Recover the amino acids of this structure.
């Protein structure tokens, strides 16, 4: 069974790469046609090839990530591969995109999304990360649970490190944001969360709960426990820090709203990885992440209130 699943996984990867290639070529041709002043062929066939490429990529990616979750031996054998981590991240992002696409289309043309809708989008994103992590890594036992270091004993031992780390992290990000503003960049997320201005107390409470509670736990499990843990174990400390921080920044990147936020988020990722490596537990990273997000949410409320 393991060999059959391994062959099917390899075939799924080939399908995903084929779809990605078709997707890239079709998108490139559509872009060139839109930029060209000369009359070109009808865009209908290119649009269909774009959809076909997206479908092949999605189906292949689903098989490449999902099939090893059915067999512990295969899951353990392939978890340390660079392409496995990339595929898990790509599947989570594409799944979140598909699930939140209706919300984006419904709000098209609006001045900003309501805070409750933004909170739902964040919750869906975190759910996609958690679903991929559980199916591909946790359920088949691809990584030992001890690697995550989540226990009551760790909480009693490391909570102070998490609190100090969270306060220091928030201070560093505030200073970094101030420096970026001096060179003409604005890493503020006030535009993305503009719905804070009109949100009721319930919506604000849910937003804080998700951003300071759910998101830190899920993201620390995925980016530090899984991504950093895999790279640290199989590729060394330097690559673990770099790749986990880059992937963490990619997930938070939004080219239409807040592209400048990438650098501060990457710095946060590096700091949280340090807390995880130093303590051997995700507990201080989760606490620091939650405290930083909670303080950032409070600052965002104050910032938007000051602009009214």
């Amino acid at each position: 069974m393991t060999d059959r699943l391994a062959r099917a996984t390899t075939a799924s990867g080939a399908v995903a790469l084929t779809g990605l290639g078709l997707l890239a070529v079709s998108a490139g041709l559509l872009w060139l046609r839109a930029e060209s002043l000369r009359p070109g062929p009808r865009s209908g066939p290119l649009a269909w090839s774009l959809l076909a490429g997206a479908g092949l990529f999605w189906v292949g990616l689903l098989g490449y990530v999902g099939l090893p979750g059915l067999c512990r031996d295969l899951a353990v054998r392939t978890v340390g591969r660079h392409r496995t981590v990339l595929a898990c991240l790509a599947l989570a992002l594409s799944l979140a995109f598909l699930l939140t696409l209706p919300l984006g289309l419904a709000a098209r043309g609006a001045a900003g999304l309501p805070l409750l809708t933004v909170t739902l989008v964040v919750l869906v994103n975190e759910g996609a990360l958690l679903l991929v992590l559980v199916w591909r890594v946790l359920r088949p036992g691809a990584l030992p649970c001890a690697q995550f270091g989540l226990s009551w004993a760790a909480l009693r031992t490391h909570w102070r490190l998490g609190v100090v780390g969270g306060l220091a992290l928030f201070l560093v990000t505030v200073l970094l944001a101030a420096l970026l503003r001096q060179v003409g960049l604005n890493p503020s997320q006030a535009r993305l969360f503009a719905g804070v201005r009109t949100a009721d107390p319930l919506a604000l409470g849910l937003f804080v709960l998700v951003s300071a509670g759910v998101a830190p736990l899920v993201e620390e499990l995925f980016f530090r426990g899984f991504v950093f843990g895999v790279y640290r174990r199989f590729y060394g400390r330097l690559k673990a820090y770099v790749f986990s921080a880059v992937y963490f920044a990619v997930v938070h990147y939004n080219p239409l709203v807040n592209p400048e936020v990438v650098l501060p988020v990457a710095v946060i990722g590096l700091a949280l990885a340090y807390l995880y490596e130093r303590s051997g537990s995700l507990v201080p990273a989760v606490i620091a992440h939650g405290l930083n997000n909670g303080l950032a949410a409070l600052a965002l409320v104050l910032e938007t209130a000051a602009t009214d």
